[in-house]
Amino acid sequence: MSSIKIFAGSSHPALAQSIAAEARVPLGGLRVTRFSNENIKIKIDENVRGSDVFVIQTSAAPLSDHIVELLILIDALKFASAARITAVVPYFPYARSDKKDEARISITARLMADLLETAGADRVLTMTLHAPQILGFFRKPADQLLATPILKEHFEREDLSRSVVVATDAGAGKIAGHFAKRLHLPMAIIDKRRVDDSELAMSSALIGEVEGKDAIIYDDEIATGGSIQEAARILRHFGAVRVRAGATHAVLSGPVLERLGSAGLDELVVTDTIPVSPEKARGLSNLHVLSTAKLFADAIVRIHNGQSVSEMMEEPGES
Fold first, then answer.
1. Which residues are catalytic?
2. Are 4-146+293-313 and 148-290 in the same CATH fold?
3. DSSP of the chain, one letter per residue?
4. Would the pTM of this model clear 0.85, i.e. be above it?
C-alpha cells in the first residue's frame, strides 16, 4: 500500500494541524513564496513519489488567493509524481453558485470542480454542500461529509423534550429535516422570501408549532446573519421560549455581528470548517465552535484504506 501524506495550504492552519494530529500523520513540508507581483510559488520539501496525498485547503478570505494556492499546490504534487491526490476542502468555494437562475451567469461551483480536476485532483472531500447536486459537477470521485453527528452530540447535552428544529426557509428544509430526524424531533419551516441579491430576506409565516418550545434553527451556513436574525424574530413572535441556532459553516461576513447581536439568540453553534477571527469570536459571546478534525481525519484514513466514507454518516441500524 502506498504511504499516506497530508499537506496544507495557508487558509486554515489550525484545522489542518488538528486533522493531521487526529490522523496521526505529520503535515508534509512545503514552502510558499509570494512575489511582489502577487504570483505564488510552491515547493514541496519532501519526496511524494507514489504517495497517497491529501491536500487541506478551505474557502476563507482572501478567497481567490486561497483558491489559486490550492490549484498550484495540487499541480506541484501532481508533477512530483504523487500516486493520488485528494483535495480536502471543508467549505467548498462558490457553493451557492450551483444553478443558472439568471441569464448570462456562470455556474461557478461547477467551474471550481473543473479547476480542481484540471489541476490534478483525483478525488475531493468536502463537508455540507449548499446543495447536494453539486456532487454531480465532479467527474472524479467526491465525498460529502455532514456535520450532523458533531452538532447532534452538542445539542443532546441538554434536555430536548420540548425542542423543535426549524428550517430558515423551504430550501433549508432538507438539511434541517435530516437533523430533526437524527434528534428525533419535530420540524418547523419559516416562509422566507428573497427578492434580490442583497442577502436580505423577509419572513412572514411559519409552518409548524413552536409556541412554548425551544427552537433550534438549523442551516448549512451563516453568512451575513440576515436569515438567522429574521428567523429568530418570527420564532419569538410565534411564542418560542428559547431560540438557538446551529450551522456547519461560519462564513460570518458583512454586518453579521450587528445582526446576530440583535437576534437575541440563546446560543449559536458552528463548526471550524472556516476560521473564526478573534474579533468575531469576541463579538459573539454566545458562540460555540465545534471541531471537525476527527471527522475529516477518519474520512482521510478510510479513503486511504479503500473503505466506505458514506458509512460514517449512517446511524446505527442504517444500511
1. 192
2. yes
3. -PPEEEEE-SS-HHHHHHHHHHHT-PBPPEEEEE-TTS-EEEEE-S--TT-EEEEE----SSHHHHHHHHHHHHHHHHTTT-SEEEEEESS-TTTT--S--STT---HHHHHHHHHHHHT-SEEEEE--SSGGGGGG-SS-EEEE-SHHHHHHHHTTS--TTEEEEESSGGGHHHHHHHHHHHT--EEEEEEEE-SSSS-EEEEEEES--TTSEEEEEEEEESSSHHHHHHHHHHHHTT-SEEEEEEEEE---TTHHHHHHHHT-SEEEEESSSPPPHHHHHH-TTEEEE--HHHHHHHHHHHHTT--SGGGGPPTT--
4. yes
Q: How confident is the model at residue 85 (pLDDT cuts 50, 70, 90)?
A: very high
pLDDT for the residue numbered 205: 81
What ranges do the domains of the chain cover? 4-146+293-313, 148-290
Q: Would you state the CATH architecture of domain 148-290?
A: 3-Layer(aba) Sandwich (3.40)
Residues 21-35 have a mean pLDDT of 97
Query: Which tens digits make up the pLDDT trace of 241-259?
Result: 999 999 999 999 999 999 9
Please state which CATH number belongs to domain 4-146+293-313: 3.40.50.2020
